[in-house]
Structures are given as structure tokens and as C-alpha cells.
Amino acid sequence: MAERRPAGYQVHREILDEGAVDKLAEKSESKTSVCDKIKNSLRCSGPRVKSCLLGSVPVLSWLPRYSIRENALGDFISGISVGIMQLPQGMAYALLAAVPPVFGLYASFYPVLIYFIFGTSKHISIGTYAVMSVMIGGVTERVAPDSNFMTWDNVTNSSVVDVFARDAERVRVAAAVTFLSGIFQILLGLVHFGFVVTYLSEPLVRGYTTGAAIHVIVSQLKYTFGISPLRYSGPLSLIYTVLEVCYLIPQTNIGTLVVSIVAIIGLILAKELNSYLSKKIPVPIPVELLAIVIATLVSWQVNLVGKYGVDAVGDIPSGLQPPVFPSASLFVDVIGDAFALSVVGYGIAISLGRIFALKYGYKVDSNQELIALGLSNSVGAIFQCFAISCSMSRSMVQESTGGKTQVAGALSAVVILFITLWIGALFEELPKAVLAAIIYVNLHGMMKQFLDIPALWRTNKLDMVIWVTTFILTLLLNPDLGLAAAIGFSMLTVIFRTQLPKYSALGQVPGTDIYRPLEDYNQVKELPGILIFRSSATLYFANAEMYQDALGEKSGIDITKILLAKKKLAAKRKKYEKKRAKNALKNGNTAEAEMEKDVATIQIDAEHSPSLPTAIILDLSPVNFLDTVGVKTLRGIVKDYGEIGIEVALASCQSSVVDNLHTGGFFNNKVTMSCLFSTIHDAVLHFQLDPKLKHNEEVTATRF
User: Fold this and answer.
1) What is the distance between the alpha carbons of residues 110 and 386, in angstroms, rounded to a whole number?
2) In this predicted model, what pLDDT tens digit does every residue of 453-505 receive, in sequence order?
3) Has residue 644 got a pLDDT over 90?
4) Are 403 and 294 in contact (CB under 8 A)?
5) Kind and range of the H or E element at 410?
6) Distance (Å, rounded) from C-alpha 414 to C-alpha 399?
7) CA distances (Å), 236 to each of 64, 155, 243, 410, 481, in order?
8) What DSSP designation does 509 have?
9) Residue 235: pLDDT over 90
10) What is the mean pLDDT of the chain?
11) Helices (DSSP H) in 15-129: which residue ranges?
């Protein structure tokens, strides 16, 4: 790296306060009224209609300019690869959602086509996602539990579950919650609430997805061991489920367990081989597809279902389901879950979409993404789909196999359509244990997120606390309540940061106009008689009192005590004046001489108290807004310190803060714009050149 050469830097200008800057820059007073803003937003023109149409339906803008020569081959290979992955993942994640596997195929078809039309990300793979599926499963099993569908079997003289009625009701519940979550996403997108994802910080999202992955793993243990544990809901349900599984382990179906172990080992080895060959072959080996094909053939040949009692997928109807509007009567029961699904699905999709957009240099519209996902969910729900988002594993395959546009996603939907119409029924003998194994192996990436904890401990301990807390809350409270609690905790950390900021006294870097905290730098010098005070957070109602206390501590002045003593002094003086006047009328000047003996005058030499300032500069550069309490606090500081002869100036105010001061009534006949300075250095020079402050060598007080 080349050595930096110092450059000369000199500025010659007058000392400028905020009023002088406004005159020099000719500040404009004209502001657009609310009515004018509404009129402008409703104004219609040809170019504006075209822009609105292309923004609402992005496919109209990019598809006519689609380059077949540059993109077609990569999109074709990518679409086929992702479509093949969608088959096993769709069926597996349908088990998480507690609906028949074929509905996972539907969720991999309809929403993908809708996103192709309305989405703005070129690389994410929309479809079934483990976290979303387990959240759906929690809703369906809560609203339609097995206990609601128990019937008496005369052959076995025992109660059995009416599986067909139960599955039909769970599909209705999944469609209802999915439709409602899509409506929430559309509404949030229309009112431009795409920024809500900013409340889902990366540590929060990663801690949440890791916790949700544990829920996913626990929910699949019943397929691994071939047991039927009771379904628990609400807080601590994960712990109850684990205890129930441990209690039922002696009833494990050995055939199912063997299938699970073989499938898991085979998938892990195949994944490792895939990683080893990734640089040598253009398209990854479709490991999951090979697994379900081989498992189906083995199950059919060996008759795993009949001989060993291994639970299989069962009936997979060919063709597509007719559209059915979701049952509105279920909306009340699932409205909270629907909102959680809408936030989680959008947060995961936009986070991954922005990563690819940054990598390849295009823009992802956050509000349009909300609308696209909302339409995908709401329209998909009419065709009995459950809620979708984007999958990281499929998105990585879509990118690595050459996918460059949304056409790859549309081609993957065509692959799913082909499978659903013609060959889906061939997988009816597929053991559910193999689908559970596919889920386990696909979650290995989420399990690696535990490595975030030591990394965050080294870089940012508060982010580490957010990660761990989110993970624990998600485990204990289930994914829906856990997310709400985690967001609440994350917001509390923001409040704590603003309530407990760092307060600093600044000094000057010698020979410059740069000011830094005295405690952090050895060569920074304190300015005689001038205190420069800064808070690391904005000033508002939650920390206004602490701001005043910290200022008193840094200045060494107990302003409350001094003002109280001054009021007592004024009261005694007034009382004394009345008494002196009264005695003077009675006894002449003799009594006046006696009263003067009670007066003591104390002089304080500034040289003996060098830490006490004669001027205070409040650096407001970290402040980005002021509420009424903040304005009142600053007004009180200027007034109170002014009463004891200490002038206060405000420096480095943002324009929004100056507007807040104006609207909050900070300025009056005594306090003008002359107390505001554009920089700290302007304020320092003002005080250093002020003869009233420069020669202020003593303060005189009278005590009775």
C-alpha cells in the first residue's frame, strides 16, 4: 500500500452561527403542504401510468428484453435442477405442515408462477421452506388435532383416527392461514411497509431459524422411529414432545428406524460426494431425487409397508386441485399465526434476495417483494397450497447452475407440473422416514449457525445476546410466539442503548478543528473554561433526565443545588429588604448598621477551580430528532446555566433537529439562532473571542 502524503488543509472564513449560515446559503422557507403532496400523488399522466404498471408487474419490463443467447441455456439447466429438487423437498416439507405430501407439490407450482410475474429477485427459489412449513404444521395440528377425528373401529374394538377427514380439515386450515398471511403481505406492500424487515436483524433471523430448525427436527422424530406421540401446543410444547418421544422409544418400529439410518447415511455421503465433484461437473447430482427413487423401488420390491409396517406416503392423486376459496370462518382462529407467517416469510426472502442483488448488481424492490409474496400465498391458497418463502439450498443451486433470471423459477414450476400430472402416483410406496431423512440432511446448514455464537462474542456481544435469546425464546415459546418475543427483546436492546448512552467531554486535537473524547485520546487537550459535552445517542423523553445529570457530572456543577440556593438567597434578600425598610422607619440608620453585620460576601477565584467551565458547548451531532421533552430539556439547560452566568451553545445540529427546535418553541426573545453553530470549532472560537467570557475571573455571591 502506497504511503499517504499529508496534504495542506486551510480554511479562512468568519465564525458562523446557524442564523448566519441560513443567510449565507439563502435557506428556502417554502415547504410542500400535505394537500399538495396528496394532489401530486394522485396526479395521473401517461408516463406515470406506464411506470406504475411496469413497477407493479415487473415481468412486463424485463421479459421483452430477455436475451435468449445469453440467458436461455443457464436458465434451462437451472430450472430443471431446481425443479428436480422441488419434488422431494415439497413432499418432505408437506409432512412438516401436517398435510398430505401432494400438497407440497402444489405449493411448489402455483406460487412459483405468480412470483415469476410479480417478483423482482432474479435468483431466489420460491417454494416450500422448512421453517414456514413447521409453523403451518403447528397451526394445522392445533386447530385440527387427531382427537377431533376419532372413530370406533368394530374390527379392532378400538378408537382410530379418520385420516381422510383429518387431512381434509388440515388442508382447509393451511389454506386459510396461508391466504390470510398473503393478504397481510399485500396490504403491507401497498402501504410501503417493506421497511419492517429492518426490525429483523441478521442475528435475530439466524437465531430464529436455528431454533425453528430444532422444532423441525423434533417434529420428524415420529417418522424416524415409527411412533405416534401426542401433539402438544403452546409454550414448552417442544420439551413435552421430546419427553413423549423418549417415553415411546421402546415402541420403535425397527424397520422404520433401519430405513431412516440407511437414508441419512446415504444422503450425507452423497452430499459430500456432490461437494467434492462440484467443480468438476456443471450440474450437481440430484441427491434427494435419487434417494426417493431408490427408496420407492426398494419399498415396492421388499414390501416394507406390508412386512415391516413402515409408514409410506400413500395415495397421491394425479392432476391439479380445483380452486376453492378458503373458509373465512377459520380466519379468527389463525389471524395471529398468519401475521407471523407473513413477517417470517418476507424477512427470509428479502434477506436472501438482497444478498444476490448486491452480488450481481441489480435492485430488489422491498415493497414489490411483499406484494409478490402476498399474491403467491393468497392465490396459492385458493388452490390448497400452504405458505411459501425462498429456500437457501435451492437458491444456491439455482445460482450455481447458471440461473440468471426468473425464467429459471418458471421452468422449475413446469417440471413440478409434469410430475404432478403424470408420475406423482409412482411415489406412493415411498417411506415417510426417507422424507424425514431428507429434512434432517437439508437442515445441516442451519445447524452450522451455532458457530455464530463464538464469532459474535468476539465482534459484538450484544448481537450475541440477541442471537442466543432469540434461539431460546423460539425453543420455549414455539416459532410464532418466539418470533414476537424475540422482536420485542430486540427492540428493548435499542431502547437500552439510547437510555444508557456514553457521555463524553471533548477536547481539541492540537493544531486542528477536530474534537475527540478526552478519556479516549492521550494527546487531546481540554480547552480552559469551555466544556464540550456529547451524548452518543439521540435526546428524547427516555434519556432526557440522564442527559442533564451527566452534564452536571461532567461540568462539576450541581445546577439544581445552585439554583435552589439562589432562590433561597433571593427570598432572604427580599425579606431583609422589607425588614430593613421597616426598621429604618422606626429607628433610623442604627438598625440598618446592625443588619449589615449579618451579610457575608464570598469571592470565588476561577484560578482555584479550573475544572468549572465558564461556557458549555453541547455537541448534538449524534442527535437525529428531538421530541417535546428533548426541546424542553435543552431550553431548560440554556436557561438554568445562563442564570448562574454560564453561556450555553448548541453545535453541529442536523437540519431536522433545527426544525424540531423551531417547532418546539426553543427560540424566544432571549434565546436566538445565535446560540446555534454549524461546527464545534465555530462555537469554540466564539467563546474564546468573547471578552465577557474571556475575562470572567470571579463570581460573587451574597449569603445570609
Assistant:
1) 11
2) 999 999 999 999 999 999 999 999 888 788 889 988 988 888 888 778 889 99
3) no
4) no
5) helix 407-418
6) 18
7) 53, 38, 11, 41, 11
8) P
9) no
10) 85
11) 18-25, 34-42, 46-56, 59-62, 68-96, 102-107, 110-118
| Cα dihedral 631→635→637→639 (10° resolution) | -170
Amino acid found at 249: I
H-helix or E-strand containing 603? strand 600-605
* The C-alpha cell that represents 169 in the structure block: 380439515
Mean pLDDT score, 71-86 = 90
What burial class does residue 449 get, using C-beta atoms within 10 Å of its C-beta: 0-12 exposed, 13-18 middle, 19+ buried?
middle
Whether 542 contacts 499, CB under 8 Å: yes
Cβ count within 10 A of residue 367? 17
Beta bridge partners of 151: 160
Q: Would you state the CATH architecture of domain 503-703?
A: 2-Layer Sandwich (3.30)
pTM: 0.78
In this structure, how many other beta carbons lie within 10 angstroms of the beta carbon of residue 422?
Answer: 11
* Chain centroid offset of residue 354 CA: 14
Among 544, 509, 570, smallest CA distance to 635 is for 544
pLDDT tens digits along 558-612? 887 887 877 777 777 777 777 777 776 666 555 454 544 444 443 333 343 556 7
Q: Nearest to residue 609, comparing CAs of 528, 701, 525, 676?
A: 528
Contact partners, residue 666, CB within 8 Å, separation at least 6: 631, 634, 635
Question: CATH 3.30.750.24: which residues of the chain?
Answer: 503-703
* Among 93, 92, 90, residue whose Cα is nearest residue 105: 90
- Amino acid code (one letter) for 207: G
Identify the residue whose cell numbers are 479562512. Answer: 12
User: Cell numbers of 545, please?
Assistant: 433526565
The amino acid sitting at 478 is N
Enter the C-alpha cell of residue 584: 429604618
- pLDDT (tens digit, 9 = 90+) per residue, 147-179? 888 887 776 677 788 888 999 999 999 999 999
Residue 601 — φ and ψ, nearest 5°? -110, 125
pLDDT grade for 702, boundaries at 50, 70 and 90 = very low
